[in-house]
Amino acid sequence: MSDPVLEVRDLQTQFPTDRGVVKAVDGVDLTIESGEIVGLVGESGSGKSVLADSVVGIVEEPGEIAGGDVLFNGESLLEMSEAERESIRGGNISMVFQDPMNSLNPTLRVGEQIAETVRLHQDVGESVSLSAEMKRKIVGAAKNGEAWRRAIEMLEAVEIPEPDARATDYPHQFSGGMRQRAMIAMALSCEPDLLVADEPTTALDVTIQAQILDELEGLKDAFDTSILLITHDLAVVAETCDRVNVMYAGEIVERAETETLFSSPEHPYTQGLIASTPRLEDADRDLQPIEGNVPDLIDIPYACHFAPRCPESNRECFEVDPEFRDVGEPDDDHEAACLRRGPEGEQL
Ligand code: SF4
């Protein structure tokens, strides 16, 4: 079997502060196979974005990766030189952020920015072994050595109307949804193996959000790109992801296939998240918010980080670290870190 595209092993990312060390990512394991969309979901402050930044190698100082490893196609990104990492970033691994205005250069035309990315990370004359219809069109342009042409084709691929004309616009002339599409076009223009999308639709209204998620799925198929989708929004996960990891206070607390997670959530935090999320098909249902807040990630003094907010906690939960264990049906690949759950969802 081939290596996973991404394998995060026991990753620890920390930020020293005057008050102590913030353990933003505290022993996380996560795997993405080729062609998968894997969700990472949790409230804000749970460490999701720091995990994304750690994978891409853009943790801001004084933050640092204090332990563990990040393997990309079987090779450790942490053992590479900065130059090697730099050539992978933006080429084999791309990232899309919540706010495209922070990533697009306001003084450059949108088409120029995409063309520049193409020129930097790829020999546009050589990319030929591609399959999907959309890709053939794009590669057709690339073979002519025209990064600008390729930029226009990419804008067309993400359904920007009149891409020839719009490629000459500046970012401020695009709507929020179009800017996000342009970011996705830029991120995919190098045909990355992995796209890390951090809250890519959060700033957009629901209709545009749905369109962009649809496009991400279509583009994933066309470009054979695996996607790590980071969001606080369970509806986005339900819509888009093959598998889901639920993150709480620096740790993954549950992981399963999307359908399993929504039909049989086992960890009390996941159950709380689902109970507090509105659903279109069940609009009259009372929403039950999870009481309390994500804890300060400095020296959390209790073993299960969710214990003070958990409706099922007992004394043991404050003293004994919950290990990951199988909680689903045999062969379900459904795991949770809760002392009070056993195989097949047995309550302990
Ligand atoms: S270990 Fe205890 S506190 Fe933590 S989620 Fe399970 S029941 Fe709740």
From TrEMBL:
<feature type="domain" description="ABC transporter">
    <location>
        <begin position="6"/>
        <end position="274"/>
    </location>
</feature>
<keyword id="KW-0547">Nucleotide-binding</keyword>
<dbReference type="InterPro" id="IPR003439">
    <property type="entry name" value="ABC_transporter-like_ATP-bd"/>
</dbReference>
<dbReference type="InterPro" id="IPR013563">
    <property type="entry name" value="Oligopep_ABC_C"/>
</dbReference>
<protein>
    <recommendedName>
        <fullName>Nickel import system ATP-binding protein NikD</fullName>
        <ecNumber>7.2.2.11</ecNumber>
    </recommendedName>
</protein>
<dbReference type="InterPro" id="IPR003593">
    <property type="entry name" value="AAA+_ATPase"/>
</dbReference>
<keyword id="KW-0813">Transport</keyword>
<comment type="subunit">
    <text>The complex is composed of two ATP-binding proteins (NikD and NikE), two transmembrane proteins (NikB and NikC) and a solute-binding protein (NikA).</text>
</comment>
<keyword id="KW-0406">Ion transport</keyword>
<dbReference type="Pfam" id="PF00005">
    <property type="entry name" value="ABC_tran"/>
</dbReference>
<dbReference type="GO" id="GO:0005886">
    <property type="term" value="C:plasma membrane"/>
</dbReference>
<keyword id="KW-1278">Translocase</keyword>
<dbReference type="Pfam" id="PF08352">
    <property type="entry name" value="oligo_HPY"/>
</dbReference>
<dbReference type="InterPro" id="IPR050388">
    <property type="entry name" value="ABC_Ni/Peptide_Import"/>
</dbReference>
<keyword id="KW-0472">Membrane</keyword>
<feature type="region of interest" description="Disordered">
    <location>
        <begin position="324"/>
        <end position="348"/>
    </location>
</feature>
<dbReference type="InterPro" id="IPR017871">
    <property type="entry name" value="ABC_transporter-like_CS"/>
</dbReference>
<dbReference type="InterPro" id="IPR027417">
    <property type="entry name" value="P-loop_NTPase"/>
</dbReference>
<keyword id="KW-0067">ATP-binding</keyword>
<feature type="compositionally biased region" description="Basic and acidic residues">
    <location>
        <begin position="335"/>
        <end position="348"/>
    </location>
</feature>
<dbReference type="GO" id="GO:0005524">
    <property type="term" value="F:ATP binding"/>
</dbReference>
<keyword id="KW-1003">Cell membrane</keyword>
<dbReference type="GO" id="GO:0015413">
    <property type="term" value="F:ABC-type nickel transporter activity"/>
</dbReference>
